[in-house]
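Researcher: I'm preparing a figure for a lab meeting and need a structural model of a single chain. I don't have an experimental structure, so a prediction will have to do for now. The sequence is pasted below. Please return the structure as tokens so I can convert it later.
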Amino acid sequence: MTGRSKKIIANLIDPEEIRIAIIDEKGKLYEFYIERMLEHQRTGEIYKARVDSVLKGMNSAFLNLGDGKNGFLYLDDVKNIEVKQGMEMLVQVVKNARKGKGARVSPRISLAGRYMVLIPYGHETGVSKRIASDGERTRLRGMAKELRPQGFGIIIRTVAEGCDMLELKNDVDALVAQWGAIRRGAKQNGAPCLVHRDTGLLERVLRDELTDEIDEIVIDSEEEKSSTEAIVRRFFPDKEIEVNLFRGKMPLFDVYGLESQIAELQSRKVWLPSGAYLVIDQTEALTVIDVNTGKFVGSKNLNDTVLKTNMEAAVEIARQLRLRALGGIVVVDFIDMEKEENNQALVKELQELFKSDRCKARVYGVTGLGLVEITRKRARTDLRAALMRSCPYCGGLGTVPCEESVALQIKRFIRKIVLSSKSEALLVECSEGVAEYICETFLELWEEEFERKIFIRGRPGMSWGKFRLECQGSLHQVEHRISVLQKREGWAVVHRSPSA
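Model: Understood. Here is the structure written out token by token.
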């Protein structure tokens, strides 16, 4: 035992969405998983696919998986076979479909068990580098060589540390049987079709995350309690891990304070305990993280304050990348440090923090511009893509025009109306904030300039930056229309110039 304890909290009651959190002894979110019923092309799924098109210039092909968007295949992943349009292939999803893109697939298939990964048509025998003991690695490699079936590769996983031959053999036998079922399914069905779906989210999390540190599992579905207990007994026959069914009236995640923590993961700004903060921005190509001292002023000198802030930020950055499932290229703008030994200490701290990360990460040191570059394997859909979409109002820009910009667009719109009509008055609708701004800043000036009576109606729910002409005509006609609107829709707020 490490002395640390964690709990697995599984929110399974809604079939449309399953959420599983791992929390530490203080109730702080350590890991978070989410899976929706309608998601397609998830990592690990195996398809009998049909090649739709081959793009030699891109050294790639697009495969019809029969479900969702076409999968993307790098031709370099295919050995000794010429990929042609119309041919059928057995492929596995290696990167989830995301942001309008289909999944990346590979003909190199791997099947994950509790203690190992079995690779059909492979020949390697590997042991996880995260097992620190050379002696243990040698012992496991020796057993793996004995157990490896002809025509398969084996990679021993980190959780196999301390396992005996029988435990490994049971895993091998189960995976070989699973591969046999997949091959039979592929022969019996025509392309394109799904031939193997990985186990459910709960079983995958238990398979990968159930360690000596887990002392309790809390679930809110009575149907899953017995199967969860069976998995725990299979993986940990000698350890007492409580599996408790939650029956409270409040939602499970609310009881453990997880909803607020998940909401924080969707924020750009992340506060650190000292008062410093991070700003996390995701782009198509990379993730950029900026470190700021914020409210933290330190107690000794500037160098000490900056070093402490950067070290504290490093811990939270490793946590945020894990929780948000961020992968690919990450660039961190730490606060500049004058001493080279401080930069080296920071890089070493980051490297140590990422050693416990299940997704392989590399830290490339401090660049000439004072940036730290990190690459992290993208194992699943990142949290922002899973929970959010681009803003329908700003078109994904993340910003909207300021009040003054919208107001001037409205002024140009009014000018066109005035030039093409002899109406005495007009009523324009726009969002409430813009309507208030126009009334306070421009309305009297516009009436003087255009020699028209102008009414601005702030409409709740109207998209920011949108506006329309509600009516125009004589002053009496427009005022009558305003009266009708206010009677029919009590909330109608119409702004008039002070001279009205």
